[in-house]
Amino acid sequence: MSLKDFKIISKLGEGAYSTVYKVKRIEDNSDYALKKVNLTNLSDKEKQNALNEVRILASIKNPYIISYKEAFIDVNSNSLCIVMELADNGDLLQQIQKCAKSNTTMSENDILKITFQIASGLKALHDLKIFHRDLKSANVFLQSNGDVKLGDMNVSKVAKKGLLYTQTGTPYYASPEVWKDLPYDQKSDIWSLGCVTYEMAALKPPFRAEDMEGLYKKVIRGLYPKLPSQYSQDLQNVIRMMLQVQTNLRPTSYALTELPYFNRFKTHAIDDQSKLLNTIIFPKNQISIANMLPKANYNNSKFKTESNQHSDTQETIQRNRQTTLGAGSHQSSPNPTRISQYLAEQEMLLKQQYSVNYAGKNKKTHNYSDRNVIAKILLEYQKEVPIYKQIKQRNRRLSQEETPYLYQRRIGQLPALEEHSPNQKRNHRNQSMPTSNLPII
Question: Catalytic positions, please?
Answer without folding.
Answer: 134
